[in-house]
Fold TlpA family protein disulfide reductase.
Amino acid sequence: MIKYLQLLPSILTIISLGFFTSCDKKHSDEDFTAYFGGEVIDPQTNYVLLLKDNEVVDTLFLDEKNRFLHKFDSLTPGLYTFKHQPEYQYVYFDKNDSLMVLINTRDFDNSIVFCGRGYEKNNYLMEMYLLNEKDRSSMYDVFFRNSKDFIKNIDSSFALRKKVYEKHKAKNEWNESFDSLALASLELPKYFVKEVYPYAHKFISGENVIDELPKDYYNHRKKIDFNNPTFANYYPYVNYVTSLLNNITFTEKKGDIDEFTLENSIKKLNIADTLIKNHKIKNTVLNGLAMRYLLEDQNMYNNATFINRYLEISTDKKMQKEINNIAASIHKLTVGKKLPTENFVDINNNPIALEKLIHNQTVIFFCTTNAESHLNSVHKKVFKLKEKYPNVDFIAVNIDDSYEEWKTKLEGFNHKNIIEIHAVDFEKIREDWVINKIHRTIVLNADGTIKNAFVNLFDVNFEKNLE
C-alpha cells in the first residue's frame, strides 16, 4: 500500500493523459489509430521499445519528465511487447485503444499499472502473470512431491486463478480474440508444470512416476492449437510446447533421465517439424530446443550434427545466427579452459577479480531475489555440501538484481561459508558464460580451469563433479 501511495502522483498524471487520449471519440471501421504512453520511474535508458513478433514497431523516447506518448496512425489489434532494457512485458491492443502504463525499473513487473481505454484487459494479464510467477517461484518444492500431492497442489492453485479469470471476464465482457489469450494465460502455466513434473521429479528425486500418473493426466493436450499465430511469440505458449516435446521423449524412453542425448534431441526437432506447421511458432520452438540442447551437450561432434539438422528445419536466419553464436560461446567453456573475464563487486561495492577468489576446487552458482524459492533452496543445498566437502569453495553470483537490492537481501540473509559476489553487467556475463537458467552451475579446478561448466546443483548425480 505504501508503495502505491508514493506513486500516486505519477499514476494520477498518467490517468489524466489516458482520459485525454481515450475520450469517447467515434471511429470508423477503417480507423485503426491508437495511443501508447506512460512514465518510467528510475529509467535505465531514455526510450521504450514497442515490438510485434520480436520486431521493433517503434522507439518511444522519454521526455525530461521520463514520460512518453505516441500516436499510431494504424496499429493492428493483437499482442505486443514493450521493452525498457533489460526488462520486457506484454501489452494487448484492441482497435483504437489508448493505453498508458506506469513502470518502476526497481520492481519492474510488480510496478506495472495500466490505465486508459483497454486497461482492464492488460491489468488482468499482469495480475495473472504475477500469480503464475508466484507459483513458479515455489516449483522446486512442488516437484519433490509424490504424484497425488503434486496434482492436488496444482489443481488448488488453478482453481484460485480461474476465479480471477471469471471475475475479470464477467466484469469486462471482452471479445473472443482476447479471450483466447486470457484463457492461455490461465491454462498454459498449469499445462507446462504438468509436462515438466515427470522428468523434473525423476531428475531431483531419482523416482520414476510415469506409471503412477492418472489415465487422464494428459487430456489437456487435446485442447492445444499448435498453429495459432496469436501465440507465435507468447512465452507461456512456446514454453509449454517445448516442455511437451521434452516430456514425450522422456516418456517414450520410460523415464530415461538423459533427455538431452543427441538421439533424443534430434527426435524433438523432428516431432516439432511434424507437429507445427506455422513457421513463426515452429522457428521459435526450434530455437528454444536448440539452446537447451547446446547447454547440455558440449560434445563438439554432437553439436555439429544437431545444428546441421536444426538448420535444415529452421527458416529464421536471425535465430540461426543466434544459435551459431551460442555454439561458439560454448566452445570457449570446454574442459580445461578458463572462464571469460567478467566484472564483479563484493558486498561493499568494491571491484573484485574472480581469479583471486579461486584457491581450491570451486563451485560457482547463480541466484536472484526474483526467484526467492530457488535462492533459499540453493543456499540450503550449498550449506550441506560445504559440510561434506570442506575443501571445496562455493561462490554465489547474484544476477538480474541491482547492487542495492542484492546488498539489502544479503544483510538479512544467512550466507555463512559462501563467497557472495554481484555481477556488474548481467547481459555480458549471460552471453559470455551462456547463462539462460538460474540453476546453472559451474565447477572449476583449483587452478581456475573449467572442470564442468554445465551442471545443475540439484542433479542427484552432482556430487560426482566434486570427487
Observations:
- The radius of gyration is 23 Å.
